[in-house]
Structures are given as structure tokens and as C-alpha cells.
């Protein structure tokens, strides 16, 4: 299946408003995870390209972009959002073909990207400093200022959403960005950058250097002339990024993995809970940082929940992204190997149900799998799988549920299914997570809702208004005037 007509050249980097090949002239091949066919050649950016992109970003700050008012920045972001919406069909198809996600999910990601632009476009002129009452004869106030040049390293699983939330907030606050998309999937990153140019974003305010993590990614993370870096990806790479940034004393936002639990109590509305319990675990073939990979169920309703979730799994169909089934393939052969390794490690456990692969296409397909009675210390209950696998774990008391829920290295998202308001409040406070949902999970993605982790899930917050504070810093001005 050929790509739709492109309005950008996928083999180029965007540096200082110009689309140009990598300085080495080298390219990397993007393949379609649904059938293994060649999609496009992308630039294999080098450290020289990252140097040029960082210099272009500084030039933008010294020029039109640095002089743009908050209102002007907001208008540009809003225009980008409009252009994104006008290109919904193309962007959705590109994301589906590049990432392997079902078309409907890819379309939702386009809408989310547009929402980020609308949200941060509207918010750009609503963030301001304060006056501080101080000693007689002084006037003290704060200025909220951009960091300067911000680096953004993003993964392949939700390119549009992650670019929207991090680049959107950084631009709203007046930073100039250098974006390093993932080598496995970066077509929508390039498309977004072209649309941003068309919307009037000044040259150099957003630069994109595709390439390998160990090359372009490492060059950006360790660059001595950036002022902030936002990284979304695996824990191991996050450590490398934070270590590299530390050499330059550059602040870091880390959005890493998770092992997020849903806690189902006997008094829960199971009809309402069921779709959330299942869908939020297998969405995007489980390749979601906030996937609910652990389902903790009070023992008196455990068999019922297991039976009902198993029935949902039996109806799941796995097929190429453009066929828009429940799930598409995994991103790569490597990811399939990793997930298959976990399935092998679960061979001693009870498989409650599996979905069906309904294609012969040579993509990276894995049947979604639900494991029952998983011991809380088992690797399936402790480690991030990043595939369509969920672990059911029974519990006997609220204290036990909390101990299991908090008993991993991660802390990204959690949910509580119960009608008991006091329990909801107790657990919402006690759960180790950046987001807690009461009788829902994910709240539809929530552009407006601050998001981020604790522990090995990372630190810092993106999304919502909070991200605007995160992508800016305060200056205090104290005037002694008598
Ligand atoms: P990854 O860490 O391998 O890659 C992420 C990005 O980092 C890519 O752009 C890659 O090129 C780059 N990179 C790789 N090595 C690098 C290096 N040495 N220096 C600098 N950059 C480097 O992660 P992945 O496997 O692509 O993504 C999956 C992981 O991301 C999962 O653990 C998932 O939970 C996490 N994730 C987290 C969130 C979140 O918001 N918390 C969102 C999506 C994914």
C-alpha cells in the first residue's frame, strides 16, 4: 500500500526553515509494521545537523520568534491546529502506516494534536508573573521567561500526541525547539513541522533532526548549547539522557514507562468498568506508557471479572492498521521478540484468554493475551511489557490492593473502581502515580490534564496548564525606589 501524496520530503531535516538532507547524505529506511514493506527513506541526522539545528534555534530567539508577543505565538499555534485538522485524513493514514495503529486510533491522535495546538495557542498569553509584597520602599515582581532552546526526544508509539504536548507547550512559552523523532516512525513529525511552517512559525523556531538515538538523539541530549531537554521513552534511555544533560547542568523532563494498575472493588459498577479495564490495556497493541497492564480485583468478584474480560479478549481481532481492527501489529520485529519473551515467561501461569490474528500479512503481530492469577512479584506483574498483555491479580483487602498497586518501580497512572467515596479519597492520596482516575481510566486522553510519573516513570509534568510552568522559568525583579 503506497503512502498518501506527501506535502513534505520525508528524506530531509528541517533546519532554520530549510528542508535539507542529513549532512552525511545518509538515510534510514522506514518500514510499514503491518506488512514489512518499505515506506520511505528518512534522513540519518548527525551531530553536525544537531549543531546546525541548535544554532538555528538560537538565531530564531534572537530574531522574529524571540520578538513575537505571547498573543502572536498563540495565534500561530492556533493556526497550526487548524492546518492539522484540515489534513486529518492524510495525517491519520501516515500515522497508521508508520506506527501500525488502527486507523480510528490514528485519527484520534490527529484530533489530540490539534487540541494541543488549540489549548496551548489559547494559553500562551495567560501565563504571567506576580507582584510580591516586600519591605518598605521596594517593588518586587516576577517575569516568566522561556528557557531558550529546548530539545525534544520522542518515541514512536504516539508521535503526534507527544510532539503536541511537549513542543506545543514549549513554543507557547517562547522557546525555540529542536525535535528528534524516533527512527521507527517519524512521518507525522515531519508533516507537523511542514504545517507549522505553513502556519507562519518563523524559521528556526522548530527544527527537526530525524535519525538514530545513539547519534542524533545522544548529540541533542548532550548538547552544551540547549537550555532544557524533554525526553519521552524507555527508562534506560532516560538515564542516558539525564546523565548527558547533567554534564551541562540542563534541566530534564523524563516521561518514561509504567506498570499501571486498575483496582476493582466488589462494589464497583462492573458494566461501566469492563470496557475501560480491557481497552486501556490493549490500545495501540499495548504500546502505551499508561497502558493498564495490571488489573487488581477483589476476590469476591474476581471470577466474574476474569470471565467477562476473557470474553472481550476472545472477540479481539488483530489485523493491518488500515483494516482498522481492534489491534494492529507491534512496531518492529525487536518489539515482537521482547513481547514474545514475556509470553514465554508466563508459560507457567494460567492464560485466561487470547485474541485472534486474522491476517497472513508478514507484519509483527502478537495475539493479545490475558493472564490470570499472576503473583504480584512475577515479571508479568512487575516489568513493563509494552505489548497487548494484561495480568489479573486477586486481592482480599484494601490494604493488600494498595500494597500490590504500589509494589513496582513505576508510578504513572492508576484507577479505582468503587462506589465508596471514602475509599476513593484514601486511595487517591495513597497511590503512587502521577494521575489517579476514579471510576474511569485515562479520561479520554485529556490534553488539559497534567501528566507525568514518579519513580521509574520519570519526573516533571507535561500536558495541561502545568506544562507551561515546566517549559519556562521565573526571574525575580526587586526594585528599591524608596
Ligand atoms: P527509546 O528510549 O528506545 O527511544 C525513545 C527515543 O529516544 C527515540 O527517539 C530514540 O531514538 C531516542 N534515543 C535512543 N537512544 C538514545 C540515546 N542514547 N540518547 C538520546 N536519545 C536516544 O524508547 P522506545 O522503545 O522507543 O519507547 C518505548 C518506551 O517509551 C516505553 O518504555 C514507554 O513506556 C515509554 N513511553 C513513555 C511515555 C510517557 O509519556 N511516559 C510515552 C510514550 C512512551
Summarize this structure as a short list of keywords or feature phrases:
six-stranded mixed sheet, Aldehyde Dehydrogenase, Chain A, domain 2, Aldehyde Dehydrogenase, Chain A, domain 1, single chain, 39% helix, binds nicotinamide-adenine-dinucleotide, alpha/beta, 16 helices, 482 residues
How would you sum up this structure, described in words?
This protein is an alpha/beta fold and 482 residues long. The protein has two domains: 13-256 and 460-476, 3-Layer(aba) Sandwich (Aldehyde Dehydrogenase, Chain A, domain 1), CATH 3.40.605.10; 261-446, Aldehyde Dehydrogenase, Chain A, domain 2. 39% of the residues lie in helices and 21% in strands. The protein is built from 16 helices and 22 strands. It has helices at 47-62, 64-67, 70-86, 88-99, 103-123, 159-172, 187-198, 213-221, 235-247, 270-282, 299-314, 333-345, 379-382, 398-405, 421-430, 466-470; strands at residues 13-15, 18-20, 27-31, 38-43, 131-132, 138-146, 149-153, 176-180, 206-208, 228-232, 252-255, 261-264, 294-298, 317-318, 350-354, 356-357, 369-372, 389-395, 413-417, 435-438, 458-459, 472-480. Helix 3 (70-86) packs antiparallel against helix 5 (103-123), helix 3 (70-86) packs across helix 7 (187-198) and helix 10 (270-282) crosses helix 11 (299-314). The termini are far apart. The site of nicotinamide-adenine-dinucleotide has 29 residues, from helix 8 and helix 9. InterPro entries: Ald_DH/histidinol_DH (IPR016161), Ald_DH_C (IPR016163), Ald_DH_CS_GLU (IPR029510), Ald_DH_N (IPR016162), Aldehyde_DH_dom (IPR015590). Keywords: Oxidoreductase. Residues 19-477 form the Aldehyde dehydrogenase domain. Belongs to the aldehyde dehydrogenase family.
